Amino acid sequence: MMEMDREDGRTPNQLRPLACSRNVLHRAHGSASWSQGDTKVLAAVYGPKAGTKKNENPERACFDIVWKPKTGQIGKLEKEYEMILKRTLQSICILTINPNTTTSVIIQVVNDDGALLVCAINAACAALVDAGIPLKHLAVAICCCLAEGGYVILDPTKLEEQKMRGFVYLVFPNSVYSVLPKESLFVKGEPMEHGLITSVTNGVMSVEEYLKCLERGQAASAKLSDFLRRNLQLQLPNDLSKSG
């Protein structure tokens, strides 16, 4: 099948250059910046602080997500992003360790050149690690786009996003416990995720096209996982400096 030419010269499966820095905001309990090409997001974590909101389960830790656009007020789309982030972060954290607490995660958009939500998820995950929040596993997010003619491209720029007929945001687990035997894949009594944490579809696509995106996304998520691990591993297991 003929592959699509991309304006920046990438192959369909090629991700943009990745960059991640931790501990970038000194007043936050944890923070990270994450870039994919020219898309850049800052994430700051505050907490856990005692108490939960009325509609939350007081026997678990809960999360409050605040999305800050580059300019202007937040709208319907950003509210949806906050909900997706909240669901995703709650599924990767061990919620039984700090019951009846709220951890705030602030997402600040620095620049949007496509795949903005996945950059925000990746930034938030790195910031949670930086804050010493107990995680079942890390997560990596990726955006797969469907062009006319059924071509799948990964990690789109803003220009590419505008030309697509559909896209999928996928979040895969990147288990720090992957060396353990299957039976021990329980962390503090909670089962680990396998396969897929979050999937959000926009636009029109068939089941076959969705599965093709899923397959491409999963293959590329290994590259993201390796990058995230290399970036975090030095401090990951013993990083207790901030949790006291």
UniProtKB/TrEMBL annotation:
InterPro entries: ExoRNase_PH_dom1, ExoRNase_PH_dom2_sf, PNPase/RNase_PH_dom_sf, Ribosomal_Su5_D2-typ_SF, RNase_PH. The keyword Cell membrane does not apply. Keywords: Exonuclease, Exosome, Hydrolase, Nuclease, Nucleus, RNA-binding, rRNA processing. GO terms for molecular function: exonuclease activity; RNA binding. Residues 14-134 form the Exoribonuclease phosphorolytic domain. Gene3D superfamilies: GHMP Kinase, N-terminal domain. GO terms for cellular component: cytoplasmic exosome (RNase complex); nuclear exosome (RNase complex); nucleolus. It is found in: Nucleus, Nucleolus. It comes from the Eukaryota. Belongs to the RNase PH family. This is Exosome complex exonuclease RRP46 homolog.
